[in-house]
Records
---
Amino acid sequence: MTTQTTETAPFVPSFDAPESQGRKLAIICSKGNLDMAYPGLILANAALGEGIETHLFFTFWGFDMINRKTSGELKFTMLGNTATHMPQGLGGIPGMTHLATSQMKKAIADLDVPEVPEFLDQIVASGGHLWACRMSADMQHLGEKDLRDDVEGIISASDFIELTEGAQLLFI
Amino acid sequence: MPTTTIAGHAVEVNDEGFLTRPDQWSDDLGAELARLIGIELTDEHWKLVHFLRDDFALQGETATLRRVSTQTGTPVKSLFELFPGKPAKKMAYVAGLPKPKGCV
């Protein structure tokens, strides 16, 4: 980065600095809880906004994020989550997961952060790539027709490793 | 605070080169800031830059890419075409505003 400040050459941010070119990020989304869907989406969106080539690989429960039937229906539960700092027994009361989910969705919407399907729309519009895990598709008996149209393919773990060569990787 | 001279105007900038005083900005300066980062401003660009200026005046912070998209009705894809690579930061720079703080 240039640090000199002179009267003749204007000091301009180095948006397209060569050292930041060619950076790649791979995010493996393996969870289907509402609260665990967001970290990957937010980081993917941030990376794309920085001009970083970004690939998301949905596997196991993360498949719920790209399955048309479940994408908008992810839930948040207090059960097993001590970070709510509430008695665990409360989480088992009928309707509590529904309530906790509604509250979390409202908190997210209040920040003008979109719901999962719309967030994925934004990621794809920003140039992000979505990939589905072959084994998860086979286990759940799902095919391309069950997934969002913008999922680029159902691929094996080794295919994903190959196409993200040189990428930084996040497992969520 | 360092200063730099852009199109004959002495402006205050931070250590990354973003203008630190929104009141030192003008349309002329905006056009020159854009040129310096390789963007020729069209009417579409100007609409967004002026939205950012107006929104900053009201909200006190720079709109995120999502806010620009939803509030102006401009698809995110178009924002990436108009301000390639790092649209949110480039828009903020051209508008003479700090880079956005929001995550989304």
---
Amino acid sequence: MKVGIPRAMLFHHYGEYWLNFLETLGVEAVVSEATTPDIITSGAVHADNETCLPVKVFSGHIIWLKERVDVVLVPRVVSEQYGTLACPKFMGLPDLARALDPDLPPVLAPRIHLADRRYLWAREWYSVARALGGTRLASASAVAGLLYGLEKHRVQARARPAAEGMTVGVAGHLYNVHDSRASLGLLDRVKSMGANPVTVDQVVPSRARMQAETLSRRIFWGYESRLAGAVLHWSRTRSVAGILYVTSFACGPGSIVGALLEDQLGREGSVPLMTITLDEHAAEAGLITRLEAFIDMLRRARRSSPGGLSVGGAQGVRS
Amino acid sequence: MNINVPRCGSLQFMARDLCDRLGLGYVETPEYSERTVEIGVTLAPELVCFPMKVLIGSAVEALESGADTLVMVAGYGPCRFNYFAEIQKRILEREGYRFRLLTFDSPRDTPREFYNNLRALLPESRTGLVGMLRQVALALRKGRALDEIEKRAMALRALEAEEGAVDQAAAESREALSAAISKAEIEEAGVLARRLFGRVALDDERPHLRVGVVGEMLVSMEPYFNFDILNWLARRDAAVERSLYTSDIFTPGGHPVLGFDDRMIESAASPYVCHEIGGHGHVNVAATADYARRGFDAVVHFFPFTCLPEVIAKTVFVRIAGEFEMPILSISIDEQTGRAGMQTRLEALVDLAWSNRERKLARGAHARAAAGA
């Protein structure tokens, strides 16, 4: 039996653990290919037109998998941290996938609910493992491996290669930032312009959490809370020269957190922040111009004052 | 202290009633208008959803007309509306308004803050804390009675034998209800309403459609945003049911919407949506699936542009519509929505529902004839 996993959305967070899970069971896993323009187009055609870019990309990957696998694994991520919840789209993602196309292979949707410390949701993974033909022992060890991996993911930051020169914080969802097609190669472009991009997953989660708790109202989305914490950390320690806030059009949490960060950073003074909104109407030229302008501005500011540029107004540059 | 609460279904009625009971000052929220939307669109962040823009505009208008204490609800659910009060506060502060914002979370999530909010209202009110809770319960009961009147009016309006009879009964019941203060009086007003509606002459023979109205709270409940859909449908011979009522939402112990509790919502919504998806997405899918199973002729779905839970619901509606052959029209509302275009689409939906019904009847007759032969 072939189990398909779309290379989209939370695959960029938890993909390796899902693959490990399937590997322990001895089931063949098929991960869809890296996002191509065709995948984005087919996603935009099949998905509802008001969903955000990552959901459209996800739909494209599901359609890609349709003919190639016997069953699709779309875990239902309910929460990613203690005391938080995920975006509603993650909670409804399997239902969304099922409604996409009537001829779709069955969708397996075990939950991931890290806020539930009793781990009742781990049972769903166990039943999935058994349904995929794992023995009791193999299933139990696959689930244990998965839980261990998720827990590690929750507390550890991704290693960050040491690099010289100016760093730029890229605050965005991993499924946008690490998908070089959806983000139009944002990270590579920043690199080629001579700056080192740092992403949110490279900030130690406990540090981000501490910063996020200084906000006047707790952010209840798990990933966004970490993102806001990381941005505050970068800005308050001045460890980056500037911050790129990357969101997708129609992203709900992104619209709120973006407004919140703009206001908060504007009040306390911060490094420059530029908002980039992604959608499926990929316009590379516009993106390049804005990135170049932003990085040139940062570089100039560094040359004139070694401490870097500090902006007291509401925001640096908006796009 | 001049309190103001946003306008949303019967919320305004309940809030004014409660403030009268507690002896607090209350400022009526101005009716939604083009100006409300305009102010909201100017002040609110570009990509937040439409209800937030409207509520900011409405808060500004209320502050201009003398309110000094804004009351908002929030929570820790996944819908972005739950974070909105904080953003609203920051925006209005930045614009230089002086006000106080009381954000009521669900007492289950943050009991301490809920208590502190109540305490903030105490010094100016006539009652103590226990008395206040009792008055809140009474105001809710009254709100429920008002929504009850609305539900009856909606179900009967398309069938009345004499035009305006239902509206008259509703107006009389409402009048009796708004004078009610004690629990006994509220019950009495409810009995009177039932009697008044019972007396309305109905034309049972008239062919009519059954249409469900579902959607996000603000746009599905407020006639300004949904083109007064309830009356519009009633004028076209449709008995209407709506999934959401303000008083149901504020009733403790789950959402007894359409008489379901949480577990019934889950079973009605499966297999289309198998998990809570924030906002009222789950309830709306449950209600729509329920309408479909009960053989409704059409469902109209209102949601704000890019609303998170409702967009999932909309995706799933395609599946429900296909399985039950029931047309579902999803209408996305924002500051750009044009009225004429909406009219055309709604008319098309009603026509489709009629022709669908005739086709089904013909098919039934055909099957019966075949079985007889």
